[in-house]
Write a structure and sequence with these properties.
The protein is α/β, with parallel strands linked by helices and 367 residues long. The chain has 14 helices and 12 strands. The chain has an 8-stranded parallel β-sheet with strand order 1-12-11-6-5-4-3-2. A two-stranded antiparallel ribbon has the order 7-10.
């Protein structure tokens, strides 16, 4: 699966009384779907997933899924402290049609989170998950920082396709990129090298309905009797071309390997230079286009423009996400035409002074 680009981890809107405001999820997702972001992440840390009930998590996943444009990659945050509960939520997300599972590192029993525990957790989940797994490392919130060496070891698993590294350490991202460079995987993409997933293929097939094989992406290697991975998302022996029977949709294969995404918007450009292929950015929930402009300038080889675009958002991203947190992200969304609204206790609303500062920081980052 191709994970290149910018992904906003959407917030969970609430009414003033604390109940989930599902209509506003749909409103926000529909608007993100009209931006150039690569996809949507639901139930990440920015989504206050840790503060939701089990049923609310399921309902939020369903609401966001129904509102997302078919050409956007859908990632579900399904990490819960136990492997069995993580799998249950991952299976539900798969039933809804999500494309990948973002699974944070277990952390509550910190002293027991030794390499053997982490390896067993992720391998067990990856073995059984119907969705490709993305490791999620967020030490600022969990107090546990998964070592790069452990990530490199886990990257060998065919169903672990990437990591969201939110620690902000560019050199660690570089180390993971270098340590996993030997991993060879292929992903089905469009003719313009954009992501395509089985869900997207099904939508295209549904619009065509031309034959009974519609919806299946078939690599030429498979037609010739070549070996393919047990995961439907990766092909261990990439072919140079692919045949698809999905309406009129033409596809090809792109080598993607193990994909490193980062989570610190203020360090996006240096992280991309270090080998990251994209980012899941809380700041993109507030200003998706401003984040995308950095990525696209880098993609086009314009380092100076990327540097300038990075400089434009650095102070705002650090202060709003790093210091104000989810309430800051939500207030920024309110300023930029999305629905942010209140957070759940124990998160408190911003003070008037904080709001004034945030308004100043976003004065020229309105999108």
């Amino acid at each position: 699966m191709l994970l290149h680009g910018i992904f906003p981890p959407i917030t969970t809107p609430f009414y003033p009384d604390g109940n989930v405001y599902y209509k506003k999820i749909e409103h926000n997702v529909e608007r993100y779907s009209r931006t150039p972001v690569a996809g949507i992440v639901v139930l990440g840390s920015t989504g206050e997933a840790i503060l939701l009930s089990d049923q609310e998590r399921r309902d939020v996943l369903k609401s966001a899924r129904e509102a997302t444009a078919p050409n956007k990659v859908l990632i579900a945050g399904t990490g819960i402290e136990s492997a069995i509960e993580t799998l249950r939520l991952s299976e539900y997300a798969a039933e809804l049609g999500y494309d990948a599972a973002l699974i944070r590192t277990p952390h509550y029993y910190k002293k027991q989170m030794q390499p053997a525990n982490i390896l067993a957790f992720y391998r067990t989940v990856a073995d059984r998950s119907p969705l490709p797994v993305i490791i999620y490392n967020f030490p600022q919130a969990t107090g546990y920082d998964i070592p790069a060496e452990l990530v490199i070891e886990l990257a060998e698993h065919p169903n672990i396709v990437g990591i969201k590294e939110s620690g902000g350490d560019v050199e660690k991202a570089r180390k993971m990129v270098e340590g996993t460079r030997h991993i060879r995987r292929s992903s089905t993409v469009t003719e313009t090298f954009e992501a395509i997933t089985p869900r997207m293929g099904s939508v295209s097939a549904g619009s065509s309905g031309s034959n009974g094989n519609a919806g299946q992406l078939v690599p030429i290697a498979a037609l010739a009797g070549g070996e393919t991975s047990s995961s439907s998302q990766t092909i261990q022996k990439p072919s140079s071309a692919a045949v698809t029977v999905v309406g009129n949709l033409k596809t090809r294969q792109k080598e993607v390997g193990f994909q490193v995404l980062v989570g610190a918007a203020q360090k996006l450009h240096p992280s991309l230079e270090a080998g990251a292929v994209g980012a899941i950015l809380a700041f993109a929930s507030t200003a998706p286009t401003a984040c995308y402009e950095i990525y696209t300038a880098w993609k086009e080889g314009d380092a100076e423009l990327a540097r300038l675009k990075q400089q434009r958002i650095a102070a705002a991203a650090q202060r709003i996400v790093g210091d104000f947190g989810v309430p800051g992200v939500k207030y920024g969304m309110d300023l930029n035409g999305y629905y942010g609204g209140p957070s759940r206790l124990p998160l408190l609303p911003l003070t008037g002074e904080m709001k004034t500062e945030l308004e100043r920081l976003l004065a020229d980052i309105r999108n």
